[in-house]
Amino acid sequence: MRLVRGLATADAARIVASRADEPFTSVDDMWRRSGVPVASLVEMAEADAFLPALSLERRDALWAIKALRGGPLPLFTAVADREDHPRELSAWEDKLAQQRSLIQVLQIEEQRMVTENAVLLKRILEAETDG
């Protein structure tokens, strides 16, 4: 860890001391057990220090560290913003939604009537062939 640029000696010592009993299972495990700041973990990830112990590539380690901060991941921020503030439908969008619902109801009714007429026609044809 002495090759990791920017990593404080005290932080490196805390990491080594906290893994003495058992190896770390994840970035979260390392962060919780060692108590080092997230910035130190970022420095380690940039130096690919998570690759040997946790088999994490630089990018995967950085994403795992980003999750430690408690905030949303950037990929989902836009979606979360949209869900928190649903947009009200304009008058024409509301009218369009009503029209689409009506069309669906009419299509279902049309299908029911076609099926009913087909059954009636079949009965008529069977009656004519029997009679």
Write a structural description:
- The model has no long low-confidence stretch (mean pLDDT 83).
- Helix 3 packs antiparallel against helix 5.
- It is built from 7 helices and no strands.
- The longest helix is centred in the last third of the chain and has 40 residues.
Fold blueprint:
Layout: H1 9-18, H2 27-34, H3 38-46, H4 50-54, H5 58-68, H6 74-84, H7 91-130
Structure summarized in a few sentences:
With 131 residues, this protein is mainly alpha-helical.
List keywords for this structure.
131 residues, mainly alpha, 7 helices, 72% helix, 0% strand
Helical run tally: 7
Helix content: over 70%
End-to-end Cα distance, whole Å, is 97 Å
Low-pLDDT parts are none
Q: How do the SSEs run, as a string of H and E?
A: HHHHHHH
The major β-sheet equals: none
Secondary structure: number of strands: 0
Structural class: mainly alpha
